[in-house]
Amino acid sequence: MGLAEVLGPVSRFSSFKRTQIILQHLGMSKHTDSEPEVLLERKGCAGVVTLNRPKSLNSLTLSMFRQIYSQLKKWEQEPETSLIIIKGAGGKAFSAGGDIKVISEAGKAKQKLAQDLFREEYILNYAIGTYQKPYVALIHGITMGGGVGISIHGHFRVATEKTVFAMPETAIGFFPDVGGGYFLPRLPGKLGYLLALTGFRLKGIDVQKGGIATHFVDSDKLTMLEKDLLALKSPSKENVAEVLDTYQMKSKIDQDKPFILEEHMDVINRCFSASTMEQIIQNLQEDGSPFALEQLKIIKKMSPSSLKITLRQMMEGSSKSLPEVLIMEYRLSQACLFWLTKTRTLSGSQPN
After folding, report:
1. Phi and psi for 22 in degrees, rounded to 5?
2. Which of the residues are catalytic?
3. 3-28: pLDDT as tens digits
4. Enoyl-CoA hydratase/isomerase domain: from which residue to which, for each copy (predicted)?
């Protein structure tokens, strides 16, 4: 199936609504809070990035991408900065992705804005993935969409019992970008394919057991963990890992709990190993287990075109490098938004 066919219109998704939701997911919003969107501070040995939009679940904007990228590059060159810590303010979310407060913003959004946002977001993702100093993301609370992009590519991701991870893009007529085509196919078995296609949510220690987080720490120990990291003197990645390992060993929450999908991995690996969505659907139907049928039910609610795009993205990304995946995803993002804009123009600017 060619790209033009994959990007064809889907009747159950209004192009107007899909464009709105996608732009919301990407954080094309006007920041109206009096507080800075992001705090960039030197503390001890570390550069500390705090996403500072708690009322919007620390949703990310183009301005935030630019500020974070610029400061990370400066810190990377400073000898006195040996470590990066990134976290979210408010306690509810690391970052839930994007936000839009004024619906008309989506209607006004131009292709140039979309080009800039995707390009600069993905450049930041790559910068994090190739960062020369230890990078620790404290993914406490909701971590989705763009929030995944600024955490998953770093050296260390620390989850807590309140972490909620998901890549829900197939439900909004898009695909799991921010490097999803790189890290998801590299999870155990076909787990990443399940997460990508169904938007399955991992919570708490399952975020670490599923391979998204590198460590799990009790949330009431995060403040002390940060203090201990800041107290390190010119830490190497091994020094940072030692501190994180120590805190994980002290954790008492759900340590003996099996991974939530452990008993279903055979079904996941068998059903999601197919190279077409049609075969995956057939596999789930033929399996007939309650778990398989539940995933089938979820898949039927997703955008069919998004499912096909995402499956191909996973298959292609499994053998590509991170920069190759981000280039692929940039092209996909522009093709998707171009199609949505085109169909919206043809059908009128009002919702169907």
Report:
1. -65, -45
2. 98, 146, 169, 177
3. 333 333 333 444 445 555 555 555 54
4. 47-337
